[in-house]
Write a structure and sequence with these properties.
The structure holds two protein chains of two kinds. Chain A is an alpha+beta fold. In chain A, 38% of the residues lie in helices and 33% in strands. In chain B, strand 9 and strand 10 form a beta hairpin. The chains are: A alpha+beta, B alpha+beta.
Amino acid sequence: MWKRIKFWTVTVILLALSAACAYLYFSGRRKAMVRQVVDAPAVVRQIQQLNELVTVKYSIQKVVGLEEEKVPFGSEKILLMVQANVLGGIDLSTISPQDCVVVAGKSVTLRLPPPKVLQVFINEKETQVWDRSKTWWTPWVPFNPELERKARLAALEAVQAAALEMGILNNAQQNAEKTICEFLNAAGITTVHFETAQAESSGTGQ
Amino acid sequence: MSKRFWALGIALAIIGVGIGMLALFRIQEARDFSRPHQVRTRAGTNFVMRIAEISVGKVDTGFVVIAYLRLENPNGFDLELRRNRFVLVGENRNFFRPSRMGTQNELIKLPAYSVSKGELLSYTVPDDVIKGTLSLRAGRNCTITIKESGPFGDQLRPDEFRTFHWPRW
């Protein structure tokens, strides 16, 4: 009789202990989970850290001519073959909390600044002067040492105009949306909608 | 025979005087174009602006006008000028702000009693604007005509630029 009572008592105690351990294990795991809170200022802070986000690079080659009219007569010409790189992107440092709306902690609507050409620079290795001349009947006119520099500046303008014509801003916008989408997905946001000053677009990142 | 020489001499003298007068006219025109202008900013500070030359070129999106400026700060304190305050004004009151290529800062900094000889401002304008008068407006009181009214641009090929020292182009 005592043996039976002992057996059942030990069994009940062991079962109670096992149940208590199981309860503590599962309830402890639940409590250890960190709940992520997504709010607009936090999202904006994260995006602002990206600063001037370069999302596209165009490499353009041009032949640019510059003719300088001399005072009182004559002219000097230079012909430059230029290779330049144009970087397009978005300046995210200007984004403010008003540009960001968070819905239910999972979906974000973001108003992006318009894309722009962030930098244009000449590739010196691939750039060279092709021709340089002045009017033959004004031999007294000296060559202008500044002419090549001015031709380079003019070339930068021509290259920038070509990049704009080729659609660098559209590319910059699309790539920026893709990059920000991936960035926010990694932060736990599932859906991102974009608005821009020029046009409105929408993108969903899963 | 000698009469012929006389006639040739007189003709050459007339041509020489004509060319000389034309040269003097163009020199004077260039001097007028690049004479100093006193500019007052919106805050009331004065500085001196002089247009060295104007380059104009045909590009894919229209025309580019580049103004090379000489800026002088006669004050005993540093001066910061916003690039956006230098506005190109077209004939039909079209306003154009200077374009930026990333290499040009928004602020033009002039230390006290200093001269900046190589400041440049570039503007992209559409084809129809280049046919009319163009002026550069700076500060509250200064407007300088950089191009007189008249057709221009047909003689330029794409990516070709030309530099002028007078407003007649």
